[in-house]
Each structure stands twice: as structure tokens, then as C-alpha cells.
Amino acid sequence: IPAEPLFRSVMVPGAEEALWSMTGHGIVGLSPAELSGLRGTGIPTSVVFGAQDGSFAHDSPAETARRVGAGPPTIIPNARHLTMISDPDQVAAAVESLAARVRPAP
């Protein structure tokens, strides 16, 4: 099945904002209250995006990081969507970097 027909409904102006709006109704594993409170939990967060991800707007990594209270996003060069599958080593490095930043000093 060609990917384009599957994604046509989300490849229109306003689709990404609409998807974010839908999170107000909760997402798998998080209630609306938990989602809105994510920024204030103190749980370390990080956003990792593929530099060539055509599924989201160019400013989506920074906007996503802002929404969840993360620092600047990690952008993986030459990677597309689903970077954890196509570039697992780089995603693991980003997670390790986050862990190193929040790990208590010995």
C-alpha cells in the first residue's frame, strides 16, 4: 500500500494543530489532567526528531519540546520519521545524554 493515501488526511494545513488539540481528550496511557501536568512533574523529558521527517512541520520539534517542558530538541541528521527504528543508536545516544544530565553526581 502506498504511504501517501494513508497519510493524506494529516498532510493538510492545520492537521498537526488539530492532533495536538485532540490530546485534550487524553492519549493512550495519559489522562487529560496527566498530559496537561506533564510540564510540572519534574520528570526529565527530551524530544528527538529526524531532520528529514516530512510528517511534521519544520518547527514541530521545538514546539513539542516547549509543550512538554523539554530542553532544545535533539535533531538526528538525515533521519526521517520513526527514528527509533531507522536510527536506534542515535536515539539511544540522545536518551543516554538525557540520563547523564539528570543523573545525580557521585
Could you explain the architecture of this structure?
There is one protein chain. With 106 residues, the chain is mostly helical. Helix content is 43%, strand content 6%. It is built from 6 helices and 2 strands; from the N terminus they run H-H-H-E-H-E-H-H. The chain has helices at residues 3-7, 15-22, 32-36, 60-68, 83-86, 88-102; strands at residues 48-50, 74-76. A two-stranded parallel ribbon has the order 1-2. The model has no long low-confidence stretch (mean pLDDT 78).
- Per DSSP E runs of 2 or more residues, the count of β-strands stands at 2
For the biggest β-sheet, the strand order reads: 1-2
Distance separating the two termini: 52 Å
Basic shape: flat
Measured on Cα atoms, how large is the radius of gyration?
15 Å
Q: What are the segments in which pLDDT stays under 50 over at least 5 consecutive residues?
A: none
Q: What portion of residues is helical?
A: 40-55%
Instruction: Tally the helices.
Output: 6
Order of helices and strands: HHHEHEHH
The biggest beta sheet reads: 2 strands, parallel
Structural class: mainly alpha
**Assembly classification:** single chain
Q: Taking all residues together, what is the mean pLDDT?
A: 78
Report the sheet-strand fraction.
Answer: 5-15%
Secondary structure: elements and pairs:
Layout: H1 3-7, H2 15-22, H3 32-36, E1 48-50, H4 60-68, E2 74-76, H5 83-86, H6 88-102
Parallel strand pairs: 1-2
